[in-house]
Amino acid sequence: MIIGILNSGGDCPGINAVIEGFVSAAYRRGWRVIGFHDGFEGLLPIVGGRRYEILTPNKTHKIRSKGGTILGTTNTGNFNVRVNKLGHASVEPSVMDKARKTITALGLQALAVIGGNGSARTASLLSEEGLPVISIPKTINNDLCPASDFTFGFQSAVSVVSESIDRIRTTANSHQRIMVIEVMGDLSGWIALHSGISTAADVVLIPEIPFDMKNVIDCVKARKAQGQREIIVVVAEGARLNGSLVTVRNKDNGDERLGGIGNRISHILEDETGIEARYCVLGHTQRGGSPCPFDRILGIRFGVEAVKLIEQNTFGVSVVLKGLDVDHVPIKEAIAEPRMVRPDSQMVRTARELGVIFGDLPPEELYGHQKTAEDPSATEKKTGKTSRKKA
Ligand code: F6P
What we know:
By secondary structure, the chain is an alpha/beta fold. It has two domains: about 1-155 and about 290-335, Rossmann fold (3-Layer(aba) Sandwich); about 155-290 and about 340-365, Rossmann fold. The protein has 14 helices and 15 strands. The strands form four sheets. A seven-stranded mixed β-sheet has the order 3-2-1-6-7-14-15, with helices on both faces. The protein has a four-stranded parallel β-sheet with strand order 9-10-8-13, with helices on both faces. Strand 1 (about 1-5), helix 1 (about 15-30) and strand 2 (about 30-35) form a beta-alpha-beta unit. The longest helix is centred in the middle third of the chain and has 22 residues, at about 155-175. The termini are far apart.
């Protein structure tokens, strides 16, 4: 058997772990693996060369801890799926044709595609063309499909954000500042929500819970009035300010590059609360570097599972994590809808129990009777007794 693997779209920690798992399981079965360079582009011929290599266990052993991808990647290029007005997705037929020729010429009996939303769509189109494709979901955003509880890369990003916020908190505390941290996530709020809970952020602003800046300002003032020195605000890049996305760049083809909401929010908060505010965009630090152990292990499991599916002749599917088990679903199901944070989910309810400000409620509703219950001096003043317990 000769099988292929490529990764496409933005990179994320854990891709190399998938490649290692895939190559290791394939070679155990006596198969050969071809790794294509720079995404689907590797399937296209170039003059005087080739854009792929034979991957052997010698090359891939222990790459599970390496960040990035040894194959290189791109989120632009010839395979970008275009959707017409009728909602029909396609890749230029001549491009598809060239890819098919490469696959046939190399005698590939299967192709594993590691990718996010866009790449899984391209994988689905290749599969519709009759090519034996397996999709392996990856993204730090964790927004790929409801069918997978987690994608690898997400936990690594949350670790980076959490460590950064822990650092930012100490300087925010020294200066009694508001610090606004802008994180990735595209149009989902998973990274902001999880890192906000893990670092005890005061405010978490995500696309799935529309917020009113007035609520955020009033809640921050209330928290300051309770004597808190620093205020930590985590905002997802895809959260909407006054109902609109904030972008740093819009291209003619309609592509929007998200960014800038952290800056805008920090200025509003400083102006409206009178408290000094700064912002920090964590950007691509969230995607770079070594994968955390969870992502290494999930990546390896996905890679090995893809080989097992090929062995069973099961194609047109995506591997997924369901609870503790790696499973698979049709690629079409995996790309049917994005995975978003549910505002009524247990995670959000947990955050609310901790007093996280989502900006959808005014302080009266958020804090309720908490102020008097937490302030022992209030009880002392009323009863004239001290609340100190005997040792
Ligand atoms: O990988 C997902 C993501 O990190 C998004 O959250 C972010 O908007 C985008 O990729 C950035 O992509 P690029 O590397 O093209 O700037």
